[in-house]
Design brief:
The structure holds 3 protein chains of 3 kinds.
Chain A lengths: L2 H36 L1 H34 L2
Chain B lengths: L8 E2 L14 H134 L5 H13 L1
Chain C lengths: L10 E4 L2 E2 L2 E2 L2 E2 H20 L9 H21 L7 H18 L11 H23 L17 H45 L2 H7 L1 H37 L5
Helix pairs in contact in C: 1-2, 1-3, 2-3, 2-7, 3-7, 4-5, 4-7, 5-6, 5-7
The chains are: A mainly alpha, B mainly alpha, C mainly alpha.
Pfam family, one (chain A): ATP-synt_C
GO molecular function, one term (chain A): lipid binding
InterPro entries (chain A): ATP_synth_F0_csu, ATP_synth_F0_csu_sf, ATPase_proteolipid_c-like_dom, F/V-ATP_Csub_sf
Chain lengths: ~80, ~180, ~250
């Protein structure tokens, strides 16, 4: 296989990780909204936790992006 | 969304992603340290104390205003209480004065009535005495007249003078009837 | 199509070399000073009156102060307020670094990994140095939660150490990745506009679609800019809490 083609394929595959991270973030906020609808009075106190959880989940997706960027530009 | 419109020479590079170019790190770190150090200095020396001071001033001002309002309310309550107290005192005073005046007037009226009565009684008794005296003298006059008249009548009828003492006794007896 | 990476290129404004190494004043350095200048001007000028009843700008400065102070107090408790100038500086620097980067033509300071990594290392170094200064060797109890069976303790310690070491990496990569990805996406859609508009009248009409997309993405990126500044701040507070209270996990 052409090494350049393999590089781009690898970068594309790495970006799948971002989609998975998006699922994680969506899961967190979906559950947060579901919980907030059941008990709206408790929602405000848990918003920070939702943001932190989403940030941590998203961080792992960003790792995938960085892997893609490294494959594209560094390797 | 940014383009490098600013003039200048591009950092010489071997290509690749700009953020992964190690040769640019020294410059970035140096200027970041200077810029962030400046911000931290301003923040810790000027900005944070100033805004914190403003917020603290406001909090203490609100607290002191609330305390002042509390004391003023207490003062107003005390003033109301003292006013009500003095009002009650004045009312009690007025009632006492009224009662005293009434008693005084009653006593004066009584005294006046009593002196008047006494005077009237005295006048009455003098008048009665005068009347009795006048009556007595009048009665005395009537006896002597009657005695003289009886002597004269006896003298004329009998032609002899009657004994004075006998005439007097007879007159007295007649007067007594 | 224009290169979506070109917006991250550094340009020397004032070249400077010390001992052969490059320490030139670049567009990135300029925008760092712009972010610091805007922050300082906003916070200092708006509060110069020290009004008891605030003006609009003073109200905004107080709002920013109260927001960060509330976050610090909530996550680290009262003794965490000694780190308040650091946390507030980080928040304002990241916030204005992100927001100024949203102005077309401006450079995004936080889209360079060395900048975000330096900020993250500053936080983690503060945590380690202050933690050891205050608690001595007790601070290392952070890596060994109490009440665990002896058998699984080595595994847990290894996991905790790795999780601790991954903190500065994830903290810096998150901010860098968000900014980079967002700006590349905007630039790619902007490239679609020019590419389609060059293809005649039909292309010009079709080019309105990516313009709408850019508008929506710009709004999203503004949200991300503020949100990432907040995330950076609250994670900083959570990590600082480990320096203050290593026992309470």
């Amino acid at each position: 296989m052409d090494p350049v083609a393999a590089k781009f394929l690898g970068a594309g595959l790495a970006c799948l990780g971002m989609g998975l991270a998006a699922m994680g973030v969506g899961n967190i906020f979906g559950n947060f909204v579901a919980g907030a609808l059941r008990n709206p009075s408790a929602a405000a106190g848990q918003f920070t936790n939702a943001i932190v959880g989403a940030a941590l989940a998203e961080g792992l997706g960003i790792f995938a992006l960085v892997v893609a960027l490294v494959l594209l530009f560094v390797v | 969304m940014a383009t490098n419109t600013s003039s200048g020479t591009q950092v010489p590079s071997k290509g690749g992603f700009p953020a992964f170019r190690v040769e640019t790190y020294g410059s970035q770190l140096l200027w970041l340290a200077i810029a962030f150090g400046l911000l931290y200095y301003l923040m810790s020396r000027h900005i944070a104390p100033r805004i914190g001071g403003i917020l603290e001033d406001r909090a203490s001002r609100i607290a002191s205003d609330l305390a002042a309002a509390q004391t003023m309310k207490a003062e107003a309550d005390a003033a109301t209480a003292s006013y009500e107290k003095s009002l009650a005192e004045a009312r009690a005073n007025a009632q006492a004065i009224a009662a005293e005046t009434k008693a005084k007037i009653t006593a004066e009226a009584d005294a006046e009535r009593k002196t008047l009565e006494a005077k009237l009684a005295a006048d009455l008794s003098t008048a009665e005495a005068t009347i009795a005296k006048a009556r007595e003298s009048a009665m005395g006059n009537v006896r002597s007249i009657a005695v003289e008249t009886a002597q004269a009548i006896v003298e004329r009828l009998a032609g002899a003078s009657a004994e004075a003492s006998r005439v007097e006794a007879a007159v007295d007896a007649a007067l007594k009837r | 199509m224009a290169d979506p990476i070109k917006q991250f290129e550094l340009v020397h404004l004032v070249p400077l070399k010390i001992g052969g190494a490059d320490f030139g004043f670049t567009n990135s350095s300029l925008h760092m000073f712009i972010a610091v200048g805007v922050t300082a001007a906003f916070l200092l000028l708006s509060t110069s009156g020290r009004r008891l009843v605030p003006t609009r700008m003073q109200s905004m400065a107080e709002l920013a102060y109260e927001f960060v102070a509330g976050t610090v107090r909530q996550t680290t408790g009262k003794e965490g307020m000694k780190f308040f100038p650091l946390v507030f500086s980080l928040f304002m620097f990241v916030l204005f670094g992100n927001l100024i980067g949203m102005i077309p033509g401006a450079f995004t300071v936080t889209s360079h990994i060395i900048v975000t990594a330096a900020l993250a290392m500053l936080v983690i170094t503060t945590v380690i140095v202050y933690g050891i200064m205050k608690h001595g060797t007790h601070w290392f109890a952070l890596f060994a939660p109490s009440g665990l069976p002896k058998a699984i303790l080595p595994v847990i310690v290894v996991i905790e150490v790795i999780s601790f070491l991954s903190r500065p990496i994830s903290l810096s990569l998150r901010l860098f990745g968000n900014m980079t990805a967002g700006h590349i996406a905007l630039k790619v859609f902007a490239g679609f506009v020019t590419a389609m508009a060059g293809a005649g009248v039909l292309g010009m009409m079709g080019a309105t679609l990516p313009v709408l997309m850019i508008t929506a993405l710009t709004a999203l990126e503004l949200l991300v800019a503020v949100l990432q500044a907040y995330v950076f701040t609250i994670l900083t507070c959570i990590y600082l809490n480990d320096a203050l209270h290593p026992g309470h996990h």
